[in-house]
Amino acid sequence: MARFKNFYINKKNTGLLKILGGAVVFLLLLFILNSFVSPIKNLFYAVSYPIQKTFWTAGISSTSFFGSVWSSGSLSKENDNLKNENQKLLAQVATLQSIAQANKAQSDVSESCQDTEFILLMVGVVGLDANDMLSINKGSSDGITEGMPVINQQKVIFGRVYRVYKNFSQVMLISNKDSVINVQVQLPATFAEDSDEPKEIDGIVRGKGGLSAYLDLIPISSDIKDSDVLITSSIENSFPKDLLVGTIMNIQKDDQKSFQESSVNLFMDLKTADNLFVITNYKN
Amino acid sequence: MWKKYLIIVILFYFFALLQNSFLAHFNILGTAPNLVFIFFCILVFFENYPKNTPNFYRTIFFAITAGLFLDISSHSYLGICVVVLLIIGFSFKKIQVLLRNMEDNYPLIYFLSLFSVFFITYQFLLSVIGFDFRFLVELIYNLAIATIGFSVFKRLLNVQKVQN
Prior knowledge:
Chain A is of the alpha+beta class. Chain A has five helices and twelve strands. In chain A, a hairpin with a 4-residue loop joins strand 4 and strand 5 (169-173).
């Protein structure tokens, strides 16, 4: 108390009071600004959309130009075509396997909540921030809500809608550090139905940031190999079943641990991500 | 004078758009240069050039402008980057004042070492990524872009100095 009694206003204290006053006003201003965060961000994106879209498209063109220079002409394009073709075939395999399994009685319950007929809304990609958040050009006014899955035309999963504004939305990519999705290893085409091996190998794919992810929680006894394809499973229900995720690489198996890990070569590719699709009728 | 500040605001806006759209395609191991942060550091570094009289009001202006553009173009709350850049800006100025002698001619190595320290601080405060190999790549990538920015900016200031 005595300290406060002796606190009189001199030049030094005035400076201190100014700093404190400034800090309080600043924090108050930030608090008020955050009450209007949605319209502010929406306005920013609405104004910036034409420029940002131009930059994004220019980025795609530039990378494919430099890519083709590196890979001597048409090699890059051919590779992209093959990749697309491969993804289409993998999607078909996944669908066929799903149909076969759907005939089994024990999978009827889980299958009943899966919609195979998706209603898709095409969206344009306009930006990507450092936290693996993609900006798309459609928002609540187009019927987008939080949690909707985002895929491309080859049924490759990109992520889910994280925040929705009036005219744009932010999509959390599956490589985001907070992203966790349930996956299963796709059965090989030659898999025998009467085999003793377990039919499904389930695990999770966690985002690592920097457009990369890793596979976790695969039981140590499970036999997985490099290049095995990962697809979404229906355990968690936040994504539809059988969407393509990526392939397994660099398996790390330690017998002292219960689970094995591996890197995931994600199918999602920003070079081809000019337009994506939001599944608007999938409810988790 | 106001034209200079207007140009700075426009440049911050331009860099914010550029780093989230165009440069996202030029990522190395998923890391892209943070142009807004680089430009902020260059501005703070040269803020009192050629006189050695730091003006903290300008640092506040740079931090608020750069921070708001970073916050708006990310998914975080408004103000987080502003606060982080204010801390970095003031520390940058304080260390600069403590270390530099009056005859100093703003060497690149001096800027790069300060930039590295504050880039690490920035990433740590925002907890964007962990201190792993990818972070090293990100730092080197940003240092390369910062070196180019530094050289361009210093040349511009020297031309301005000769004209005055």
